[in-house]
Amino acid sequence: MSRFFSLLYILWIPVLLSCSDSTGPGSISTPPNSYFPELPSTDKAAYSPFETVHFSIEASLPAGTQIKYWSGGTLVDSHAASGSSWDWQIPEGYSSFLCELSVTENGIDKTLGTVGIDATGESMDYPRFGFLSKFSAQDYSPAVIEKLTRYHIKGIQFYDWHFKHHDPLAGTTGAPAREWQDISGRTNSLSTVQNYITRAHERGMKAYFYNLMYGATSTAEADGVSPEWFLYRDQTALTPDCHDLPEPPFTSDIWVVNPGLTGWQDYLLEKTAEVYEVLDFDGFHMDQLGDRGVVYDSDGNRVNPEDFFGTLINRFASRFPEKKNSFNLVNQYGLKTAGSAPTPFLYTEVWSPNDTYSSLLSILAGNQTTYGRKTVLAAYMNYKKADSPGTFNVPSVLLTDSFIFAAGGFHLELGEHMLGKEYFPNSNLAMPQDLEKKLIAWYDFQVAYQELLVTSSGFSAVPISLNQGAIPVQNWPYQSNRVVALSKQTGNKTVISLINLSGVSSLDWRDTNGTKAWPTTFQSVQVAVPGTYSKIWIASPDYRSGAPVFPEITVESKESHFTLPQLGIWTLITLEN
Q: Could you tell me which residues come within 8 angstroms of residue 13 by beta carbon, excluding any fewer than 6 positions away?
């Protein structure tokens, strides 16, 4: 994240210290006909082919329960349930599955619960990224990793775990400190950081340590940072480029170092080597501050920091080839050099003027088209509402995730709590219970259909009619109060995401005050698409927990007609030739 906060950004701290465990105002009521059954779990966030998945469910399954394993719209395997836990071996040739528990009642299949299975192993090809932000001895909780496992989080950013930005490891490699204070005066524990890394690895996750790539605090010169390395606001080198932080709670401002200087790069590489010698992190999540305006080096030469981001990333990749890095493109600043640097995925923290759903789609599509890269979006929901205790707005979160996931992107939002601010320890807003269960369904859905959602193809326009035109539908770009159709081609399949903005007036994804209303839910929607297909199937995270449904198809005048049982927030239609 671009940690770099205004005074308003800090106001949550005294409020948070005084609030209780209450989740604040009551959660928004769920839309009609929502059904969220019992949720099975798996023992890891991701698996490799031939690895055994251990499943469990906190419920007594009814007699006759069948367990089905879907890959897209193909049934790969099935067997009868026998108890509340079971094992299944991943077959080769698939990257993801949906495990469905179902029973047949009066000749009708009923879904009891589902869980997604990521079969891409340790790779970050599908970078579901989460975070941790609290590292005192009392903060360690295995339950946090259990929760992130259920959301299939594959990489964890350890935010503000460190001692100083220019000297992240407290103590020495031979005698690391057992505790230290971070820049906000919080006491962090080495054992908590170590235990979280170990627990994450056991669950198939990667651990990335967070730090600025060019930040220094008040003791920097005493710790070996040369004054000639700093950036300045004037050509006479009298006014350092400094990011001011309120003191208290912060113990120092942050001075900005010239990232293009070999001396600073060498210094940061050595400090990072110390971190890796003590802590088994898998990589470095590099942060920056965004566009700093006009700045100069100590000799009075104009410096554009983004010119050197790619070079710095490359140096880290060469020095630590076994580690994987990520880099924060603050509102896409630095993309021209960092976009082609060796990171498994791109990571963009989104700020104004990128305020609409269309802005998110443009970032994701542009990164994929230009750089061939998947993208994680750090996009903070209900931003102003997060200044005070309360709860997240459920429909705004689900709509934003639907657009991001449908466009093949990933959303950094989950850790010990859900993110509402760029200072990750801010936990003013709680997830109401209905949002927590719905998000599990959304993440299961993203995992189960990731091969269809995360593709290199751009959006195409597919003519589609809903209820013979009575429900307005529009391809991207789009207007409010419509059903949005996002269509892609992947192999022999046309994949159409219908995202329902009917009754939704605002196209602002952040919903900063948390006031967005639920879209209108439609039942038994008649669909017409041009052409004939060998197979058509539909799935939705808010219907039958994402399990595929195979409607009856009729062909009239070279059009295929079928019925959606329900159109809630997001429905995926797959047309196969």
A: 249
Q: What is the pLDDT of residues 7-57, one digit of tens each?
A: 333 333 333 333 333 222 222 333 332 334 568 999 999 999 999 999 999
pLDDT digits (tens, 9 = 90+) for 131-140: 999 999 999 9
Rounded CA-CA distance 316/325 in Å is: 8
Cβ atoms of 559 and 530 within 8 Å: the answer is yes
The Cα–Cα gap between 76 and 448 comes to 13
Closest CA to 258 of 208, 292, 224, 286: 292
Closest to 398 (Cα-Cα) out of 448, 439, 434: 439
**Residue 226: which region, alpha, beta or left (left: phi > 0; alpha: psi -120 to 50)?**
beta
Residue 305 and residue 231 in contact, taking contact as beta carbons nearer than 8 Å: yes
pTM of the shown model: 0.92
Structure tokens at 220: 């920097």
Q: Domains plus CATH for the chain?
A: 7-21+125-453 (3.20.20.80), 47-118 (2.60.40), 465-576 (2.60.40.1180)
The CA distance from 170 to 168, in Å, is: 6
Other residues' Cβ atoms within 10 Å of the Cβ of residue 244: 12
Q: How does DSSP assign 532-573, residue by residue?
A: --SEEEEEBTTBGGG--B----EEETTEEEEEEEEESSEEEE
Q: What is the pLDDT of residue 515?
A: 96
pLDDT of residue 23: 28
Amino acid occupying residue 123:
S
Token pair for residue 199?
A: 């627990």
Which pLDDT value is given to residue 477?
A: 75
Cα gap 214→440, rounded to integer Å: 37
